[in-house]
Amino acid sequence: MINMTKAPLLRFNLADIEVIEKSRKYQGFFAIDEYLFRHKLYQGGYSKVLKREVFERGDAVGLLPYDPVTDSVILIEQFRSGALRSKTGPWQLELIAGMFSENEVPLEVAIREAKEEANLEIRPEKVIKVMDYLSSAGGMSECIHLYCACVDSENVSGVFGLASEGEDILVHVMSRQDAQKLLEQGKILNAATIIALQWLALNLDKLKSSWK
User: Fold this and answer.
1) Conformational region of residue 80, where left means phi above 0, alpha means psi within -120 to 50, and beta covers everything else
2) What is the value of pTM for the model shown?
3) In sequence order, which residues have a C-beta less than 8 Å from that of residue 33 and are 6 or more positions away?
4) Cα radius of gyration (the chain)
5) C-alpha angle with apex 160: 154 to 164, nearest 5 degrees?
6) What's the pLDDT score for residue 143?
7) Would you state the pLDDT for residue 81?
């Protein structure tokens, strides 16, 4: 038996997986791929051949605009079909967000989506990387790239989004404290938004200092 108190962290990598077969089982707006694979085991040898379906939706970017002068954040509200059976309903408070187009890098996506979804002009030098994370690694390939941007929230309001994508996006400017209260009340259920607001609370002093 392994002595887990001395076990190294993350000892395995992609070289320790044998993908036997990969096939596409569904292709619509998103896709589902089926994998047959085996992988190394902590106590030696390999697993049996496993079959898993993976939801392939591509990677995405989330952006939290923050105004250090007024201590305000900008969130958007829009309809989300995946929240149809949630306790808050399908209209969700979220970060500005979007998926990658071909040959785009995360920062470009963040700047483009800020203009499309909130009519915000974002300067690249006023954007700070928060983190990358896997949204649901048990069955989805998506990686979320999170950013925070320094903005002037004065006169920010309106309804935006691309009609060609069926978007109907309402922009909200609110104090950071009010956003935190919504978080505590369970009225913000989107993981990226929760992570970004918690990150902001932890890094507030450093952020204000760097954006003076």
Assistant:
1) beta
2) 0.87
3) 22, 23, 24, 25, 53, 54, 56
4) 20
5) 160
6) 94
7) 87
Residue whose entry in the numeric block shows the structure tokens 């970004």? 196
Residue 5 falls inside a structural domain: no
Indicate whether 1 pLDDT > 80. Answer: no
Mean pLDDT over each residue of the chain, to the nearest integer: 92
Active site residues: 165
Other Cβ atoms less than 10 A from the Cβ of 140: the count is: 14
Residue 141 parent element (H or E)? none
Residue 3, pLDDT > 60, answer: no
Q: What pLDDT was estimated at residue 89?
A: 87
Neighbours of 61 (CB within 10 A): 28
Q: What is the CATH number of the domain that holds 96?
A: 3.90.79.10
Contacts of 145 (CB under 8 A, 6+ apart): 59, 60, 61, 62, 106, 109, 110, 129, 132
Residue 116 lies in a domain: yes
Same domain, 143 and 206: yes
